[in-house]
Amino acid sequence: MVYQHCNETINGQQPVSGPDLTWRRWLGTGWRLFKSDAGELLTLLTTWQKRAAMRQYILTLDHRMLRDINVSRADILAEAQKPFWRK
């Protein structure tokens, strides 16, 4: 009778063992998480930069432009005074 331990094969493949493979997997998983988080962070920073630039730009609009878009100077000042992280 042949006995096979459950950790010898998984779906016909040899088990993952040894410190190198464990560290490689751990680092690979960490790298994938870092790349996804870094992408989200880059998107957030880009959004904040665009928002800050737009708020500075709207301060330069003259009264004719504000009238064209039907916005008061008070609305513009209120928007421009918001921190860049607020919508």
Condensed summary:
This protein has 87 residues and is mainly alpha-helical. Helix content is 62%, strand content 0%.
Helix and strand arrangement:
Elements: H1 19-58, H2 63-68, H3 73-80
Summarize the main sheet: none
End-to-end distance: 70 Å
Overall, the morphology is: rod-shaped
Stretches where pLDDT is under 50 for at least 5 consecutive residues are none
Please tally the helical runs, counting DSSP H or I stretches of 4 or more residues: 3
What is the N-to-C succession of helices and strands?
HHH
* Helix content bin: 55-70%
Gyration radius over CA: 28 Å
How many strand elements?
A: 0
On the 0-100 scale, what is the average pLDDT?
Answer: 81
Structural class: mainly alpha
The share of residues in extended strands comes to under 5%
Written overview of the protein:
The chain is an all-alpha fold and about 90 residues long. It contains 3 helices and no strands.
